[in-house]
Amino acid sequence: MPAEQHPGRQGIRKIGAQAERIDSDLAAIRHAMRKPAEAEFAQAGLTVPQTALMRAVVLQNGVSLKELSRQLSLAHSTVSGIVDRLEGRGLLVRHNDPQDGRISRIHPAPEVKEFLRTQLPALTQGPLQAALKRAKPRERNAIEQTLRRLRQLLEEARSPAV
Amino acid sequence: MPAEQHPGRQGIRKIGAQAERIDSDLAAIRHAMRKPAEAEFAQAGLTVPQTALMRAVVLQNGVSLKELSRQLSLAHSTVSGIVDRLEGRGLLVRHNDPQDGRISRIHPAPEVKEFLRTQLPALTQGPLQAALKRAKPRERNAIEQTLRRLRQLLEEARSPAV
DNA sequence: ATACGATACGTCGTATACGACACATAATGA
DNA sequence: TCATTATGTGTCGTATACGACGTATCGTAT
């Protein structure tokens, strides 16, 4: 039997307790980031996911649903629903791709386009960015590195080195 | 127009870009943690939030809704809905507190109680714990420290020393 | 004792969020 | 050519998730 995994002699129990604490922190982080922090675009009546989606659409005119789904790490059906509501409000439009009939390309509505392009720098991340400003540069980098690593660890699960 | 020859100090723009990357990572982490990773209790038909709630209820028999809401970092209405469904399945029961009529104390259903108490160690966090096992102890600690710090930074915003 | 604010919970409407399924279109192979 | 497979969306059912509102109960001041 080869050498065991990384946990080594630090037992599973300890990792379990640590996982609970981390899970709790992640939940709190999610919760805190849900509110647009009274940001300027909350006044426009947009939720956080709607804002993120609008942002992506404005930056990448004519992006496909699949691509949006990938970028936002959301299921395509979820993105489809968000697009539905924004389209219903007249903030977005769907166009069929002339080359590939399967794809529906998503564009900002003409009126909104100009407005958003000028406003974009202002309506950034909100609570997260505010939090980062409170941190020291060293801390900011630690946060970014660590989250990337955790993401990597979680996504490694998919392909367990078959 | 002399573009940015010398960025000078690290301005808001840089933090904004960093915030975007972190936001993207957080979304991916959330996404990856949503799936119980084909864990043992997925077979029981429980979602991740339901599992977390059951876990809390089993460990703290007769916990109140408010307390659950606090521990899970969820709105009380959300917790109420989850309890509704679990109660509908016969996994939980609500009892009125005899001391304080406002409080409804939540207990595991008698049959489930015994079963879960023995199974609890096995059905832990799932994807998160699996990911942590893949990390070195040093990395695990870094993740915990960093997430706690980010949570703290985010929660500092709420109460400006009222 | 009674009024009144605070607290705990339930309910409602809406917006995510997912997987499963259906369908149209594209790409491939026989 | 034409069947088969793969891909991109849309839709449906269900489960979160929240804020707003209503209601019952508790604590407290009058």
Question: What value does the average pLDDT of chain A take?
Answer: 80
Specify the overall morphology of chain A.
Answer: elongated
Distance between the termini of chain A: 19 Å
CATH topology of the largest domain in chain A: Arc Repressor Mutant, subunit A
In terms of DSSP E residues, the strand content of chain A is 5-15%
Biggest pleated sheet of chain A: 3 strands, antiparallel
Give the name of the CATH superfamily of the largest domain in chain A: Winged helix-like DNA-binding domain superfamily/Winged helix DNA-binding domain
Q: How many DSSP E strands of chain A?
A: 3
Q: What is the number of helices of chain A?
A: 7
Instruction: Give the oligomer, counting copies of the same chain as homo and different chains as hetero.
Output: homodimer
Strand arrangement within the widest β-sheet of chain A reads 1-3-2
The ordered H/E elements of chain A are HHEHHEEHHH
Give the count of structural domains of chain A. Answer: 2
Radius of gyration of chain A: 20 Å
Biggest contact:
A-B, 59 and 57 residues
Q: Helix coverage percent of residues of chain A?
A: 55-70%
CATH level-1 class of the largest domain in chain A: Mainly Alpha
Uncertain runs of chain A: 1-5, 37-42, 158-162
- What structural class results from the helix and strand content of chain A? mainly alpha
